[in-house]
Amino acid sequence: MSIRRHPILVIEASTTVGSVALLREGAVMQSRVVAMGASRDDALFPAIIAVLGAADMVPGDLQAIVCGAGPGSFTSLRIAVALAKGLAHATGCPLFRVPSLLLAAGTYELPGQYLVHADALRDERFALPVLIHGDGSTRADGPMTRVAMSELDAVASGRRLLAIGEPPGQHDDRTVVAPRASAILQVDDWWVHGPVSLESWEPVYGRLAEAQVQWEVAHGRALPTQ
After folding, report:
1. Which of 6, 104, 141, 173 could lock 63 by a disulfide, CB 3.0 to 4.6 Å apart?
2. Residue 73: pLDDT band by 50, 70, 90 thresholds?
3. CA–CA dist 67, 184 (Å, integer)
4. Max Cα separation, the chain?
């Protein structure tokens, strides 16, 4: 697709570690990784400014913006989506979405069939079947579902499990991966569904913690993040 030849900004913040990447001609020009969390100062916007500045570019030079669509941390995703929508609105760029579980799978190098899974609270996992080709390109191999942790192996049905967590690597006999903005290079055809609506699109937020649900019911309003 011709849009991949032009400057593209990718924003991912579905976990406690966010990332941004600036792409052009199918390569990463600049990237940054930052810490996320409700108790932290916003580091994502400064990272965006940093990658643009390092490439001697301004937001108006962008031709597209891609945002990780979750599931994941409500607070981190809300920050990322607000930034992505704001930049898209200000620059007139189309905004595309890509599942954060695919951005995690895209960081893994061994070809094969996998089930990428992430915490959905209440002893459940979000699960996405993926296929990693020999050239490293990655695509979803079915819809994302939410399953009981006890049923994960059965749902995998022979696929190797990739757990989302920090830090990535091999932990307790589990292969752990983490979504990164730069992994968009490995994701097949992320643009095929077209840009999202800036007015109506929202990411897949992870299920709220039960304590937060109870607090919001009791107070009749959203839990403050500051």
Report:
1. 6
2. confident
3. 10
4. 52
Sort strands 169-171 and 174-177 into parallel, antiparallel or unpaired: antiparallel
SS3 33: strand
- CA-wise closest residue to 61 among 94, 19, 93, 97: 93
Residue type, 7: P
Burial of 49 (C-beta count, 10 Å sphere; 0-12/13-18/19+):
middle
> Could you tell me which residues come within 8 angstroms of residue 202 by beta carbon, excluding any fewer than 6 positions away?
81
Contacts of 53 (CB under 8 A, 6+ apart): none
How many angstroms separate the CA atoms of 181 and 13, rounded? 9
Q: Which two tokens stand for residue 141?
A: 């191999």
The rounded distance, in Å, linking the Cα atoms of 104 and 20 is 14
User: What tokens were used for 13?
Assistant: 């913040």
63 close to 3: Cβ distance less than 8 angstroms = yes
Handedness of CA 130, 168, 108, 193 (dihedral sign): positive
Whether residue 225 is predicted with pLDDT greater than 60 in this model: the reply is no
- The span from the CA of 160 to the CA of 28, in Å, is 28
Q: Find the range with the poorest average confidence among 1-5, 110-114, 155-159, 178-182.
A: 1-5
Rounded Cα–Cα distance for residues 63 and 77 (Å): 22
Q: Please answer whether residues 20 and 9 qualify as being in contact, where contact means their C-beta atoms are separated by less than 8 angstroms.
A: yes
Q: Are 62 and 31 in contact (CB under 8 A)?
A: no
